[in-house]
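Obj.: predict assembly geometry.
Materials: sequence records (below).
Method: joint structure prediction, all chains together.
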Amino acid sequence: RKEVEQDPGPFNVPEGATVAFNCTYSNSASQSFFWYRQDCRKEPKLLMSVYSSGNEDGRFTAQLNRASQYISLLIRDSKLSDSATYLCVVNIGEYGNKLVFGAGTILRVKS
Amino acid sequence: GAGVSQSPSNKVTEKGKDVELRCDPISGHTALYWYRQSLGQGLEFLIYFQGNSAPDKSGLPSDRFSAERTGGSVSTLTIQRTQQEDSAVYLCASSKDDSSYNEQFFGPGTRLTVL
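Observations (raw structure tokens):
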């Protein structure tokens, strides 16, 4: 079983749609959680951290369920510029800041 | 300010040759990480440095892979006797320190192709 699992997609949605991505992780000792965004042939960039209480940043909302070892990302009012691969990332915390990445979910927003 | 830089951006080599990949972290960042991303795969952790020491080398795929960091700044990843399965994008990241809540900033990567 992979340490971090995501639906690879692609999710093809029209502009303005709401789309949700899910992710599960296997290591119950995981300490911190993130969503990164990766554009085609570019490096990953932090989109947002994920907190147990849930957090929102503009059109983006992230949720964490530690009991179910489940992380979600909700994007409202999708823009063409949201098209990218979204990486679910978990810090397993055995040694410092060791990140484990999911394989990513592809989002394509179409006009 | 300047971000993480990596060189070369692209490297094509023949099977069996050695290659060195370089990473310049963000100035003042004490933690540095190496990952690789194979086509269609997620990022795979290789090694990380806090200062000049490497507390976690668990991700290095074989003893052909090694990395060093000197002066708490620049790091080099060396792959000896390259194999075709080593072809991937090698990404370097740095963070302020190795706290698990610090953002990691990634460089643009080195695309390695082993013929």
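Conclusions so far: The interface with chain B takes residues 4, 31-32, 34, 42-46, 49, 87, 91, 93-104 of chain A (CB under 8 Å).
To do: check interface contacts against the pulldown list.
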